[in-house]
TrEMBL record:
Native species: Acetobacter estunensis
Gene3D superfamilies per UniProt: 1.10.20.110, Aspartate Aminotransferase, domain 1, Type I PLP-dependent aspartate aminotransferase-like (Major domain)
UniProt GO molecular function: aspartate 4-decarboxylase activity; L-aspartate:2-oxoglutarate aminotransferase activity; pyridoxal phosphate binding
Keyword Transferase: yes
Protein origin, superkingdom: Bacteria
Residue ranges constituting the Aminotransferase class I/classII large domain according to the UniProt record: 190-504
Protein name (database record): Aminotransferase
Family, per entry: Belongs to the class-I pyridoxal-phosphate-dependent aminotransferase family.
Length: 530
């Protein structure tokens, strides 16, 4: 059986998960508890209700345009008088949470953000109907305004001005990363053999990207220290001083360790960029930032050098919607690097983007990302689908108007209660860390054994069982699915458990199952010492 486990050592944790699921479901009549994937089982209902109610308004607007037809054919929404018609629509549907939200949202957009109500309603109506190509392709104008306000509030604490940042709506964070890396390569900013630094541990697909044939990059690991609450020691961050490191790529708060970068680390990175490495490109995936207290992105402290990727997937329970944005400061170092490219490469890029503008040399990098996402020639059909953009706006307004952060506190409390429940059933105290966001928890196998039965037992287990073997045995004997920490770049035996995707009572079962297995190991340990 051990040989079978070794066969799977090179698999991504998410591919290994499928093997574990098959193992966990072999025994009929037993509940399989999959704590391996981070898809939440909670979601934001009010902005969805608003979306579906607004769809009825938009449909009525379309039918009104071609009201003489009886074959189910509608026309385009008209902006003249649209605000009055919307007020009547809301009055006819008083008492629905979704329509009350829409009334508040229009007031917020008009009175707090200073956006024209009629243009906003018209953009949302045409957007939700999906009757036009996304225009401009990067993002609908007012959708970018609303979404941008939300993202900058959550990621930077409004320390950056909305008008100083461009956003590109993308199909979730995964698409954002794929587009960014592709455009860095296409524009000569990333070549085979270049060094890319990864903040480790990290979401496992990001470890795989540099090794792909398309890139063949040299990976430099920037290791967070578990003994320093998963923060980056200065000695590790010093690796970023190497001028040959082209990119620093990180997830913040981290996956799988679920810890936000502290201020000292961010300031050290900012110091390195300002004093020694002005050309360093930083890519930060901040999908879990909205679960943190007082979160600040690297985009807030190094805006000129940082490309921000934010996804709506986890916080709003919207993984199926595929909603995300790429954000870049308008005065950014990446555009400066493009202007410094060698003349022959500049000539090639001028030809590449010549169908888009009469001045290709001054085409911003974020607009190159948009074009490259559709092989340039199909740039006019680029962009996130307009109904997706409308739902993203509803999510953004939902949080912008939530002055008491009621939704935020509720979802944070959900995952924190689950963590407390898991560790209580396991019989171990969870580690306290002010920077933890609790979306995942790292079950440090050695530490758990040490807490339960002492250091000698912990060493005994570590010598006799690999992480993979333990995870397969957990799946086989208890039906619980966990993911190996080593697949994310964790250097010691540990397993990642999601605290987002199961109900609270399930975490009692997981904790008890893990404790039962630890007790069985301990009995074997005692027998070996007889």
């Amino acid at each position: 059986m051990v040989a079978d486990f070794r066969r799977f050592k090179n698999l991504s944790p998410f591919e290994l998960k499928d093997k574990l699921i098959r193992m966990a479901t072999r025994k009929s009549g037993r509940l399989m508890l999959n704590a391996g994937r981070g898809n939440p089982n909670f979601l934001a209902t009010l902005p969805r209700s608003a979306f579906f109610h607004f769809g009825q308004f938009a449909l009525a607007e379309s039918e009104r345009s071609f009201s003489y037809m009886s074959a189910g054919v509608g026309g385009l929404a008209r902006i003249e008088g649209i605000e009055d018609r919307f007020d009547r629509f809301l009055a006819e549907r008083r008492g629905h949470n979704g329509t009350r939200f829409l009334a508040r949202a229009l007031s917020y957009v008009r009175d707090q953000m200073g956006l024209p109500a009629d243009k906003f309603l018209h953009e949302m109506a045409e957007g939700i109907l999906g009757c036009h190509y996304p225009t401009p392709p990067r993002m609908l104008p007012l959708s970018e305004q609303v979404t941008g306000h939300y993202v900058l509030k959550e990621m930077t604490g409004d320390t950056l001005a909305r008008d100083d940042v461009d956003f590109f709506g993308v199909e979730g964070g995964a698409a954002g990363m794929a587009y960014i890396f592709n455009s860095l390569k296409e524009n000569g900013l990333l070549k085979k053999g270049d060094k890319v630094a990864l903040g480790m541990p990290i979401f496992s697909p990001y470890i795989e990207i540099p090794h792909l044939k398309e890139f063949e990059l040299e990976q430099v690991a920037i290791h967070a220290d578990p003994h320093q609450d998963w923060q980056y020691p200065k000695s590790e961050l010093d690796k970023l001083r190497d001028p040959n490191v082209r990119i620093f790529f990180c997830v913040n708060p981290s996956n799988p360790t679920s810890v936000k970068m502290d201020d000292a680390s961010m300031q050290e990175i900012a110091r390195i960029v300002q004093e020694e490495h002005q050309d360093l490109i930083i890519i930060t995936d901040d999908v879990y930032g909205t679960f943190a207290d007082n979160f600040r992105s690297l985009f807030a402290v190094c805006p000129r050098n940082t490309i921000l990727v934010y996804s709506f997937s986890k916080y709003f329970g919207a993984t199926g919607w595929r909603l995300g944005v790429i954000g870049m400061h308008k005065d950014n170092a990446i555009d400066g690097l493009i202007r410094k490219l060698p003349a022959p490469l500049t000539a090639e890029l001028t030809e590449r983007y010549s169908s888009l503008t009469t001045d290709p040399n001054n085409l911003k990098f974020i607009d190159r990302i948009v074009a490259d996402s559709r092989l340039v020639a199909l740039n006019h059909t680029a962009g996130l689908s307009t109904p997706q953009q409308v739902q993203m706006v509803m999510f953004a307004l939902f949080c912008l108007m939530d002055e008491g952060d009621h939704y935020k506190q509720t979802v944070k409390n959900i995952i924190r209660r689950r963590e407390a429940t898991l560790y209580k059933a396991l019989g171990v105290e969870p580690h306290e860390d002010a920077n933890a966001v609790h979306y995942y928890t790292m079950l440090d196998l050695k530490s758990i054994c040490r807490s339960l039965y002492g250091n000698e037992f912990a060493e005994w287990v570590a010598e006799r069982s690999s992480t993979s073997e333990i995870l397969f045995r957990i799946a086989d004997e208890t039906g619980v699915i966990l993911l190996p920490g080593e697949g994310f770049g964790v250097k010691h035996p540990a397993a990642r458990a999601s605290l987002a995707n199961l109900d609270e009572y399930n975490y009692i079962s997981i904790g008890r199952s893990l404790r039962k297995m630890a007790d069985e190991y301990y009995q074997a340990f005692l027998k070996s010492h007889d």
